[in-house]
Amino acid sequence: xxxxxxxxxxxxxxxxxxxxxxxxxxxxxxxxxxxxxxxxxxxxxxxxxxxxxxxxxxxxxxxxxxxxxxxxxxxxxxxxxxxxxxxxxxxxxxxxxxxxxxxxxxxxxxxxxxxxxxxxxxxxxxxxxxxxxxxxxxxxxxxxxxxxxxxxxxxxxxxxxxxxxxxxxxxxxxxxxxxxxxxxxxxxxxxxxxxxxxxxxxxxxxxxxxxxxxxxxxxxxxxxxxxxxxxxxxxxxxxxxxxxxxxxxxxxxxxxxxxxxxxxxxxxxxxxxxxxxxxxxxxxxxxxxxxxxxxxxxxxxxxxxxxxxxxxxxxxxxxxxxxxxxxxxxxxxxxxxxxxxxxxxxxxxxxxxxxxxxxxxxxxxxxxxxxxxxxxxxxxxxxxxxxxxxxxxxxxxxxxxxxxxxxxxxxxxxxxxxxxxxxxxxxxxxxxxxxxxxxxxxxxxxxxxxxxxxxxxxxxxxxxxxxxxxx
Length: 471
Prior knowledge:
Blueprint: H1 9-17, H2 29-40, H3 43-57, H4 61-85, H5 91-99, H6 102-136, H7 160-174, H8 181-202, H9 218-229, H10 236-239, H11 249-278, H12 289-296, H13 300-334, H14 353-369, H15 372-399, H16 415-429, H17 433-457, H18 459-462
């Protein structure tokens, strides 16, 4: 069946090595851990914690982070094995090409376009909240109509600051981005310093009575909160996209993925405990909850510093997300499943310039017009779907004995992949019905694109030697 034609693991690795210019293997375990923390700590902790506490979990937001963290740890172990086994760029899209075949790979690629695209939009929206909060401290305010997403009832029509930051990041990317582990590490240290500063200042203002009732919305609220703050963990899978630039990926990829996730989980739990301890959870439904909490206890000088640090941190996440989106478009275009213009590289700047501006258009429309909570839900369902597929992929790898004996291997198979699938599936079921409907429509559109274009133009049609047929 041509729908499930595959690229073997050996073929994928050989193709990556045959490129005219192979990527320099410069990254070690520390660099990857910093990359992971840099990609994870952003909008989730600085923005969504407030909404999740106010609307869903209350002080039990701590349990929401634990539940989401568990789902991610199980999924991260599965990602770590794939990253060790298939050290090729493309993340879950590439892994699916090796295990399930082209149709599933396309569905995953289309799903990841949703993940990176809406994540970029949500991050831009969060950045806008902090930027406007910072300007507000100086008495500068955007016109209300241009200050937030489309909501005529509140007098807002477009989030102009969100569009402007996406424009700036896109321009930077088209100029040629040299990935520097040192620069990334500096940005991560700034972000970590901001988080630690909040903890160090806020812990003295915690009032335990703010933690009661601990679970005002019941366990269902905790579960819904977990599905919402799941967005805060997105980013560790970005580590797997760096696979071709890692020294000894079999050892270093798993360390980078798992270490970054564990460090962020601990920080998230501590921050959420302090946040709900300082401010009654009902008052946290704001776009900049961490800075708001410090203003609430009249530590405005720290709040200003937090806003600047959060903006710097969120900017780097936005850069990674938009970069990831453009490179995903590039990989899918290179395989022929999207028009070749997506894989066209500007000779002077050596960047996929056209697809970067296409990405800008999509991201700016959504970040400018769609409310943050809707963006986060759509990102979450796309990511959970990818995690569930990768979990099943590990079972498939083991059953078909495709995985080499060396490198990282998920312990306690089949239990860990099954737990990853169940946890992620459970979180996905907590998302609103409208999110599922939107996700279903997105996948149907994707199938139309594949059968109308991708299947016929796939490079596997032209290169039958690299095809393995199922059956």
